[in-house]
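Ligand-bound model needed. NAP.
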Amino acid sequence: MIFTTLPCGEAVPVLGQGTWNMGEDRRLAGQEADALRLGIDLGMTLLDTAEMYASGGAEEVVAEAIAGRREKVFLVSKVLPSNASRRGTEAACERSLRRMGVETIDLYLLHWRGGHPLADTVAAFEALKAAGKIRHWGVSNFDVDDMQELAAVPHGEAVQANQVLYNLARRGIEYDLLPQARAHGLPVMAYSPVEQGALAGDRRLAAIAARHGVTAGQVALAWLLGQAGVIAIPKATRAEHVRQNRAALDLVLAPEDLAEIDRLFPAPRSKRPLEMI
Ligand code: NAP
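Prediction:
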């Protein structure tokens, strides 16, 4: 595995696993937990979940996947903006801990900006840290101006990651948000790294992939993993996809591949508002 560092200095894997849509159907939970376990065994030990996913069902799948191997995993979960008041954040965290059967969340994120003052959410995060319920906190779907506002809040500088939509079809953050994050040593967690499967079906990427004997999805992921300070969290329920995603880390794209990718998916030349899924 390859690692990047959080601002606090802790190393985290650059390739993790998402869990959105897991836990929706209890009959599939076993298969979903198996996929996560396979990924953990392959080194993709960063697991991303949220109280929102299947209304807690995804966190229950995570519980099943990490039973007996908690110490191997870097666990990320998120509080809903509607719960992100001073007291609401702490209560939501307790519920997530209970669902996952753990004593601590490694990284707890505000899922997106809502109506509660940022200062209250950050105060709650700091209290949870002091109580040992979370080890670090961060944000998600924050654009450049949101990050600037966060920096002005007491303890705002303790933020450890910003999780945003980033993939070949969504390169907007390269204009400003990604350079800003890099300047602060803040990892960007790229969600929907294969555009929810769409990039895996891209014929142009398939042509590049054929030169390497891999798939289009792997090219999309390898490109993302080539960006400094970026952590990718693909979600995969099929074992074949889990293995392919891990193998994408070993795929080295040639300069001519990268040039072709830039022609097909141009980098932004002006500010684009942060996109969300
Ligand atoms: P994604 O990871 O881009 O795509 C998932 C889809 O792609 C699944 O249908 C999966 O199929 C398929 N897939 C995965 N690997 C593949 C491969 N190698 N080849 C072909 N298909 C592949 O989309 P996502 O789930 O939206 O994003 C990933 C994670 O980011 C989420 O699960 C969630 O944890 C997080 N997220 C966060 C936010 C936020 O607001 N913070 C928003 C969206 C997502 P199978 O499942 O059938 O294997």
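Residues 18-20, 48, 111, 140-141, 163, 191-197, 200, 215, 217-218, 233-238, 241, 244-245, 277 surround NAP (CB under 6 Å).
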